[in-house]
Design goal:
Layout lengths: L3 H16 L2 E9 L2 E8 H5 L3 H4 L4 E5 L6 H4 L4 H4 L4 E5 L8 E2 L6 H14 L5 E6 L1 H12 L4 E7 L7 H10 L5 H5 L4 H11 L8 H13 L7 H8 L1
Parallel strand pairs: 3-4, 3-6, 6-7
Antiparallel strand pairs: 1-2, 2-4, 2-5
Length: about 230
């Protein structure tokens, strides 16, 4: 049986190329570290045009689950009319990977900045959701000359374990990993209910397909180490 979420991902990649003029491009950050970005087509075919473009650069940063283009699929086409839109997958998510054991926000921010630099982006506005907002804050701290501004939703500059656990327990989970790395359909329902402001009813098949693509097949449970790094 066709996985509906996987089919949507394939269709979405085609749609982004047609409607928004963005394409996936993998940047080598270090020999063992590669980060995938969705970038304007001209950034690949004619990279010299990046610095000459009059469009302000907007970088859309996804949350802990999923990847860049799935998170921002409804914004990319509209924003690309007025901005040069770049959508990275953070390391360990989507098409980005590394052999490094480093799980810190600093490492994510460093790799993001290096990747943008190799794409000839000199200054940008960061738009971060949840975990992406935390990376945005860290990048602005480490590379202030590159960050022109930020738009942050659902994130804080720093957070303590006590605050995290209060939130986690308040929505019915026993740990961060249980909430952010679901292994059951009910866990997926609980996670999506936190990120969707309207009560939208999806069939169980959708949740099951999402579980397979987004977690069981695509994401290593090694990522749970990220949570400890964030809290420390």
């Amino acid at each position: 049986m066709v996985n509906l979420v996987a089919a949507h991902c394939s269709f979405l990649q085609w749609l982004m190329k047609i409607t928004a003029g963005v394409k996936p491009y993998t940047v080598e950050i270090h020999p063992e570290t590669h980060m995938r970005f969705w970038v304007p087509s001209y950034a690949i075919s004619s990279p010299n045009l990046v610095s000459k473009s009059k469009k302000p650069v907007v970088v859309l940063l996804h949350g802990f689950c999923g990847d860049g283009i799935m998170t921002w699929q409804f914004q990319v086409a509209s924003l690309s009319k007025h901005y040069a839109v770049y959508v990275p997958d953070f390391l360990f998510f989507g098409g980005s990977f590394t052999d490094s054991p480093n799980r810190s926000l600093e490492f994510q921010a460093e790799c993001l900045a290096v990747g943008l630099g190799k794409l000839r982006v000199e200054k940008c506005v960061l738009v971060g959701f949840s975990y992406g907002g935390m990376v945005a804050f860290k990048m602005a701290e480490m590379y202030p000359d590159m960050v022109h501004g930020m738009v942050i939703s659902g994130a804080v500059v720093a957070i303590k374990e006590s605050i995290i656990m209060e939130i986690v327990n308040g929505v019915g989970f026993s740990s961060c990993s249980e909430m952010l790395m679901p292994s059951t359909v009910d866990g997926v329902k609980g996670l999506l209910s936190l990120g969707i402001h309207k009560n939208i009813s999806f069939p169980n098949r959708f949740h099951n397909d999402f579980l397979k693509v987004g977690f069981l097949d695509a994401i290593s449970y090694e990522e749970v180490g990220y949570l400890n790094m964030i809290l420390n």
